[in-house]
Amino acid sequence: MPETQATHVASGKVRELYALDDERLLLVASDRISTFDVVIPTDIPDKGRVLTGLSGFWFARTRQIVPNHLLALRDDGRSTECRRLEMLPLECVVRGYITGSGWKDYLATGEVCGHVLPKGLTESERLPQPLFTPSTKAQTGHDENITRDQAAELIGDRFEEVERTALDLYRFAAAHSESRGIILADTKFELGLDADGALVLADEAFTPDSSRFWPADRYSPGRAQRSFDKQYVRDYCESVGWDKTYPGPELPEEVVAETRAKYIEAFERLTGISFDEYVADPEVVLR
Ligand SMILES: Nc1ncnc2c1ncn2[C@@H]1O[C@H](COP(=O)(O)OP(=O)(O)OP(=O)(O)O)[C@@H](O)[C@H]1O
Ligand SMILES: [Mg+2]
Q: What is the 3-state secondary structure (H, E, C) of 136-203?
């Protein structure tokens, strides 16, 4: 439980936000899982710890690219004390491979967020270079992909700095992941501004909720890939004929266990740290 003087300020689909004071927030990652922007009624035990630990791991390693909001991880392994920022009104998406909504857009138009792509790409193919493909931050419903011009309208003259930062973060995390046998197909993060107007990485970073991680030894373009993300839960939800509106379906025990195992495997492969070690001392990911 957060300390008593913390005031609850918001509930996201996955996180509870508390104000510690005017400058600091406590972000508590629950075990909730959302697919197709709907929170599923069944929790995945320890998922919030995996997200918090992985984000902390990346925050500790990307400071030379951009400062971030992390102040401390709490002993529960799921609570992050962070700097309270003014969040930019867009999702920073970077794609190294063509999949998901990017693949759908490409099939329909040959473009993704205004980037004209080579003809004849197959599903999950590696792009000639990583692309910044921002989307709106929908208050309700689904985020929508937008062009560079639309993004520049949302955030003004910081656009180029944001794009460069997003691409640098992706390249760093993709290279680290590759060294661990994992492809970082795409990822999404949120940037904010601090009181001095400096750009700061916030929210979560390079987790299975915000990224598509594919085991490199199974990679084979021309089809959808197996992944360490929510795809397994999405597939289950679609297999029961769910219409993707509230309420989502309950998950059977074996789907919960398999999903939990995938999140933990992603944590352990990416960090090289055992999950038990993290639970015993969350700060291990910051060293
Ligand atoms: N340092 C920060 N300062 C201010 N807000 C932050 C900071 N870090 C994260 N947030 C916000 O906290 C929320 C995290 O909650 P969560 O991830 O559960 O939300 P979500 O499901 O992604 O969607 P939504 O934001 O639409 O509720 C996000 O709205 C994010 O923008
Ligand atoms: Mg979120």
A: ECCCCCCCCECCHHHHHHHHHHHHHHHHHHHHHHHHHHHHHHHHCCEEEEEEEEEEEECCCCCEEEEC
51 CB near ligand 1 (under 6 Å): no
Determine whether the shortest distance from the Cβ of 88 to ligand 1 is under 6 A: no
Distance from Cα 109 to the centre of ligand 1, integer Å: 31
pLDDT tens, position by position, 181-230: 999 999 999 999 999 999 999 999 999 999 999 999 999 999 999 998 88
Provide the pLDDT for residue 139.
82
State which amino acid sits at residue 270.
Answer: L
> Which mutation among 15, 59, 210 tests ligand 1's pocket best, with the greatest number of atoms within 8 A of CB?
15
- Residue 5 CB-density burial (10 A; 0-12 exposed, 13-18 middle, 19+ buried): exposed
Decide the pairing of beta strands 34-35 and 38-39: antiparallel
